[in-house]
What does this fold into?
Amino acid sequence: MSNLVAYEIHGAIALIALNSPPVNAMGVEVRQGIVDALAQAQNDDSISAIVLIGRGRCFCGGADIREFGKPRLQPYLRDIIDQLEACQKPVIAAIHKTAIGGGCELALGCHYRVGDMSASFGLPEIKLGLLPGAGGTQRLPRLIGIEAALDVILSGDFVATEKAKELGFLDQIIFGDLAQGAIDFARNLLAAGKGVRPVGQMKIDAAGATEIFAAAHKKTSRRARGLIAPERCIAAVESAVTGTIQDGLDLERTYFDELVQSDQSKAQRHLFFAQRQAHKVPGVPADTQPREIKTTAVIGCGTMGRGIAMALANGGLPVIVLEANSEALDKGLGLVRDTYAGSVKRGSLSASDMEARLELISGTTDYTDLADVDIIIEAVFEDMDLKKQIFAKLDQACKADAILATNTSSLDINEIAAATKRPENVIGTHFFSPANIMKLMENVRGAKTSADVIVTVMKLSKTINKVGAMVGVCDGFVGNRMLYAYRTQAEFLLEEGALPHEIDKVIYDFGFPMGPFAMGDLAGLDVGYQVRQHRRKMRPSNDRYSFIADRIVEMDRFGQKNNKGWYLYEQGSRTPQPDPVIETLISGISSELGITRRDISDAEILERCMYTLINEGAKLLGENIASRPSDIDLIWVYGYGFPIGKGGPMFYADHIGIETIHNAMNKLYQQHGEMLKPAPLLEELARSGKSFADLQG
It folds into this structure.
């Protein structure tokens, strides 16, 4: 028997314990250990029931992801689950913490499931571009119903203890020692004369199935546009309703094998590992300990400040919001309550959770109330002088080891830090709007930011359920600097012959939630205008610059907020409608510039925008502003909507081919000048035949 699986006898009960740190992943040795232990229990006439339990951090963290894409080794997980289900002695899964992925499917193969108050279950394979491949799509709908099973499978989210009991996944919640509770549960089953109860033989309640599946398809087409895995998940669950379990298991395996080899799943698995690697910040010793964060504060209760405060409270952290005056504070906190109330109305948050989070948020207008706070995040308007004034006040008011963070999207962290006597405690925490929803935290290390501050802020990202990526200081950091390059080319394409809706359609069809011009209208064109005015003094006088966006704002067109921007919007609608006024403006500017407008193909639009984006990413890597290509991918997927099924711009570049992109950039450079010159790193990779993946380290 594998030493990663323990076997114990407790009277008539055999206990099989997974013991493979850190999360009891179902690697081949663990699988073999379960097979051996199960055979031992079945062949022992003194054993009447079996308890399957996990030791350490959780019940089972699922399949060993390191085996994905490699030849499968026996025993297969699906066969083990079949053996559990076919066992003639009752098998009880005893769950603590998580039973996820293959671990959840392992529990579904058991006849009963119990768990302590930490227990949760989930099938997160969809987040890796996969579907559950060991019976999850077939057994879960039999156990908890079609609609609930689809919610679990399509969301990839975990279901906590009480909800798991309500749905019927758990048969009993154990209070006290889980192993003993599970053994007692098994003895009670035997005493009551209850035997095996195979989930695979349960009858599915098909009432309303047609409507349930139609709603799932509709929701998926909207929220997971272009992704294969969600549709395969729905089809597999449909097969559980319409056919035998064996037919369903065969279809599920066919789909799994298809998906695991797909480019989309490879991209999503890349992002999974990228999130892990992002926390290994170059130059920071691996043994650096984070500071303890028990209390937080936010400066400003505007759109960003409110969102950041909510993000902190959502992560269970007390937060003090500071505003300049009581009127602004009361208004801001009122809007926080309204936002939470909207979530309650939509059913995404319970009323009790809303009140619990609101209790964590308090307000003040006095800097002295921040004296003992562990981290303060400034979230005021992008004005350097204002931010420096605030940091000077914080330096005086806050304790010596407090971390002072700024939510700036582009300003120099080092200049802000210089306004304090503690530059080692200053760092950037660039949240994305709305900050309570958007996943990304682009964290920015200054020249003097200490290692423990870096580690603390990266840990904070996790605490509040954000994807953290650490970058260096430059204008726009990583995300916005790349955005400037991409948007600039989109606007030049307008001058040369394209129209906003044509460019937006190409970018939308590529997989972004919207194109650059629709996105500008959503964000507010006046915001971008103010940023450009700030940046104007830094722009070389001979650089090509498009004035179209500025002219639009000067026409009092601000986007969706006043129903006219790049597009027109009907009152109460967010659907953009092309506007002849804008088309006339664009044509007029082309004439002013002496540019003869021409037909521009979709292929040219995509190449000009996406290859420029990749080229700027290569520059950032070459300048060590970004530490690794996968950090850029995280920033663009979770901050800017780059299609997750393409893995981010640098992963996508490797898929296209570095030489292809370099050749295209060289051609654009010859046609359009210095702004499109291939990055030195791009040229080096093309010449050496290497890829961005070779730079991961």
Q: What stands out?
A: The first helix runs from residue 28 to 42.
